[in-house]
Amino acid sequence: MLTNTIKIKDEEFFELKEIIYKASAITFAESKKYLLENRLSKRLQELNFNSFKEYLYYLKYDINRIKEMDTLLNLVTINETYFLRERQQMDHLMKSTIPAILTRGKKNIRIWSAACSTGEEPYSMAILLREYALSTRANYEIIGTDINTEVVDIAKKGVYRGMSFRGVPPNFQSTYFTQNGLVYEIKDEFKHRVRFQIGNLISHTLPAQVGKFDVIFCRNALIYFDIEGKQKVLDMFYNCLNTPGYLYLGHSESTIKIKSKFVLQNFGNGVFHIKE
Ligand SMILES: C[S@@+](CC[C@H](N)C(=O)[O-])C[C@H]1O[C@@H](n2cnc3c(N)ncnc32)[C@H](O)[C@@H]1O
Asked: 166 CB under 6 A from ligand 1?
């Protein structure tokens, strides 16, 4: 039924953006004010609020404030993703990085999709491990985490619609999914390879929750962070990687202003980060 857009005043915008930043490291430029208005107006109306002032009070003082923070983050995160996105990086992982790890005799390989959204990224890796005939050569544990509780639930179900398959090759759906009307459910073989949990990249407890990895993918999430947020997360990734360990960021994400001990290496048109 609803929704009329509720306008946010400048001072409310600054306060709200600070609350979101402290909770997630996600930044909103002033030009993105409309985005908060559009995404949150319905929520305000559900709570019977007429202004962002009332919502801010609720977020700060209400008994439900902790739960509301999750709802807020679910509403403001950008969760766009699809199978085999930026495939070049995934192919590099399969053709070069994993074989290099196997050559060192490693039998248990841990891979982290650190902002996995609805799960297409880690499931793509599980599928490609089989396509590249790597799945039987070691034990793989793939973990997907995301701050958004709703996308993590979707990822766990592993049920997808058309948009998740844009750009996949013919037969991708019929080979790796079971069709049920308009939706496609990932086959158990791949579903069982990936474990999902809620994980905030800036939470101090996250490293202990997830453990150490050989490979981390964190693509198209740090673009929403400022330098300080990126720095924090990159340091955390460095500590969470085994030596050697490999980090892939999004295709267009640069770490040029970040201090880190990672060594950058080129492949094709891309780069990846190595902990040596
Ligand atoms: C655009 S999606 C990227 C999904 C996938 N990695 C890809 O490249 O297709 C960005 C994801 O980052 C998540 N995210 C944003 N801030 C986060 C944080 N502080 N901790 C964990 N995940 C976060 C969002 O919820 C969203 O699902």
From this structure: no
CA of 237 to the centre of ligand 1 (A): 15
Calculate how far, in angstroms, residue 22's C-alpha sits from the geometric centre of ligand 1: 16
26 vs 73: CA distance, rounded Å: 10
Please give the model's pTM, rounded to 2 decimal places.
0.96
The pLDDT tens digits of the residues spanning 177-197 come to: 999 999 999 999 999 999 999
> What CATH class has 87-275?
alpha beta
Residue that is written with structure tokens 């997360």 in the block: 233
Cα dihedral sign for 226, 231, 234, 235?
negative
Residue-by-residue DSSP string for 52-85: HHHHHHHHHHSTTHHHHHHHHHHHHS-----TTT
- Residue 221 Cβ contacting ligand 1 at under 6 Å: yes
Q: Are 194 and 122 in contact (CB under 8 A)?
A: yes
CATH number, domain 10-76 = 1.10.155.10
Q: Percent helix, strand, coil in the chain (nearest 5)?
A: 45, 20, 35
Q: Domain residues of the chain, as ranges?
A: 10-76, 87-275
